[in-house]
Amino acid sequence: MQKIKEYYRKIRNFKLNDRHIFKICAILFFTVIFSLYMINQMNLSFLYNNFGDVFKSGIQLYSIYVGQGDSSLLIFPDKTTLLVDTGTEEYSNAFCKELKTILSHNDINQIDYLVLTHPNADHIGGAMELLETFDVKVVYRPKLSVPGEDESEYPVYADILYYDVMNAVKKENCEIRYITPSTFNVDNFEVKFWTPNEIYYSDENSYSPIITVTNGELSFMFTGDATAETEKEFLSMVKDDEIKIDFLKVAHHGSKNSSTLDFLNKIKPSYAIISAGVNNWYNFPSQETIDRLKSVGTKEIYETNELGTIGIGINGVSFKIASGFIFDDKPFLLVLYFCVLFAICSVRISDKGRRIKMYQQFSDKTEFSCKQKTIENI
User: Fold this and answer.
1) Cα→Cα distances 61→72, 82, 152, 310, 319, Å
2) Closest by alpha carbon to 298, among 328, 261, 333?
3) Which segments of the chain are extended strands (E)?
4) Is residue 58 one of the residues assigned to a domain?
5) Whole domain around residue 266: which residue ranges?
């Protein structure tokens, strides 16, 4: 009770001085700066990494960093969006924030076409949060049904995540299309699904489509986790047709079991993008895949495990590239913020200690001086 009375008396007798005003202003200043940074963190990170030029381009290609997963976004000149895969569930929150920032810089608020290449978690893990966050118009899904679906012509894939994602797609009333060889047009580009043609595959990765987007002058290819089996199927379809790809999203994170030499020789990509996680357990991308890409004349190979999110803005025959890991470690930022506040508040303690030390030194000097005078008087 006595301590409470002492605290109450101190509060009543408290008077602001210059030191208190300085601390209050410093705390308010850092709080405002911290709040603005937290609100605009994604925008600041993108602008810091020179994505501004990419946002202004005619057609934009992004490989969004989603850890050991895959997600590519293509924004056409008329602002139509094509999103291929959604990465891992672990990165779903950061993925949606990055996606929202990219779209907002282009005055876009929806996903026109979402392609879920196959049912593996590293490609559809972010789909649930994506569907909750954005208005998705059309969803392309694999030729695999889920338990309880009345899709007798397609084999059942019994996986809880795939089941939940498909139910979420239906709940959001998206237009659903199965991935089959087909084409549709966006602006002056043709989007073409070459594979899969078969109903049954031994490996679910083989359900990944090989997709080309081209207008006769510029071409992109997306491959999901396409296997050597898928690539062989593609080659049997193109036969002697002229296929030249400018930008290739390399299959299966650069695994040595995809991107066969016959396939790469047919498409001869000028630039390649590999989506893989930092220090991933699989050691993706494989050096064999890198060597094969270089052997067919690929000029540059961009890897998300080294560069983070990659953005390419294309205008005519020239393009600009930006990349960077988007910093989103909130616990670390909060700890840093409170450390700054503690440092500001502890100024009083250190100042008080300094004054006590000075007072002791002054007292010692005064005492010594008094003793000297006493001795002299004697």
Assistant:
1) 7, 10, 37, 8, 10
2) 261
3) 59-63, 72-75, 81-84, 110-115, 135-141, 175-178, 182-186, 189-193, 211-214, 219-222, 247-249, 271-274, 300-303, 309-315, 318-324
4) yes
5) 50-329
Domain containing residue 95: CATH number: 3.60.15.10
d(CA 106, CA 20): 46
- In the beta sheet, which residues pair with residue 182? 193
Whether the model clears a pTM of 0.70, i.e. scores above it, the answer is yes
- Is 356:349 a contact under the CB 8 Å cutoff? no
Residue 27 belongs to some domain of the structure:
no
**Residue 233 domain flag:** yes
Task: Per residue of the chain (378 residues), give pLDDT as tens.
Answer: 666 666 666 666 656 666 667 777 777 776 766 665 555 666 666 766 789 999 999 999 999 999 999 999 999 999 999 999 999 999 999 999 999 999 999 999 999 999 999 999 999 999 999 999 999 999 999 999 999 887 778 999 999 999 999 999 999 999 999 999 999 999 999 999 999 999 999 999 999 999 999 998 999 999 999 999 999 999 999 977 779 999 999 999 999 999 999 999 999 999 999 999 999 999 999 999 999 999 999 999 999 999 999 999 999 888 999 998 875 555 556 666 667 767 777 655 444 455 555 555 555 555 545 545 454 554
Q: What is the number of structural domains in the chain? A: 1
Which two tokens mark 205? 């990765």
CA angle 369–372–378, rounded 5-degree value: 145
Rounded distance between C-alpha atoms, residue 116 and residue 124, angstroms = 6
Residue 370 domain-assigned (yes or no): no
